Amino acid sequence: MSDGAEARARVLRVIAAGRRVEDPRDPLGVEARARLPETTGLHPKGVELALGAHLETSPTDAEIDALLARTGVAPRCHVVLSANVCTAPLRALALAVATSSDVVVRPSRRDPVVAELLVRALSEDESFAATNHVTLTSTLAPSPGDELHVYGADATIATIARGLPAGVLVRGHGTGFGIAIVGAGASLPEAAEAITRDVVPFDQRGCLSPRVVLVAGGQRRAEAFVDVLDQVLSSADASVPRGPLDPALAAEITMYGASMEAVGLFLAGPSHAVGLDPDPRALVLPPAARVVHVVALAPEDVPRLLDPWVTYLTAVGLDDDDEILARAVLERAPFARRSPLGAMQRPPLDGPVDLRPSRA
């Protein structure tokens, strides 16, 4: 078997392990659903949504080809995981085993569950374990020639990279957030439904989660969209409640709400909030807790508003990438992952979700 075929086979075994975690009848799926509400802070229905709809367990052959094309080759691959998105270890492990047959994973201390379960599944997979090694660790010890994949805040990546020996290739996937665009021709109810599907998973914590919505067509259209989005998010609250808020995050939401009430509009439900800045001087990034910041924006104002944030822009959701506002945003963020509204949290398994240059 060629090296490329072996790498593909390893990726497929990771995907098979993910299907066990996805399956509510498999012992690993049962354990995941029992443990994740505590480690993630998600409501049990939020955990079920994450595992049942957002594990990338059905990639196409073309997606796997793209994933393999975006990875290197190394004698060993080390992975440092973060805790924001509980399903992220599957993609991280797929990229790691595409790189090497010898993988060492340091899970998040706050949420190690899915990483632990995937590694356990691979250890129980006799065809995989016979020639490949995926192990958990609490320490990092990469050697020259190894790759290190780090997922987390930019500061974390920088700190880890400074302590490494020369010759270790670091692929850093750092701080980021998503923006959704409601173009001039978009149906407001359809856009609100789609954006809600992007906001609710993981309670908006991931780098693909839209935290800002840019609305074309002026202030009145943005106000109308806020009303519709608030109604749709309220319906989602009932079916998939937000997890509990810690005091610090609750205080952030209160402060954000006060600032929006001072300049525009703020609507809050039991598990969400929507703020409107009708005439922004600067772009405000709201707390990541199903809090959506809506801005009425003309295309000519995109550079002024986005440039301070563009290096952190991981994902753009849009209904028409040829619409004038969308084109203005995409010109400022050429490396952001583009997705249709409603599909921002379901990217193809074609490589890292973060397509920006490495943060290391």
UniProtKB/TrEMBL annotation:
GO molecular function terms listed in the Swiss-Prot or TrEMBL record: acyl-CoA dehydrogenase activity
Region Disordered, annotated ranges: 341-360
Keywords in alphabetical order: NADP
Alphabetized Pfam families for the sequence: LuxC
Domain of life: Bacteria
Biological process terms in GO annotation: bioluminescence
Official protein name in the record: Proline dehydrogenase
Organism per entry: Polyangium spumosum
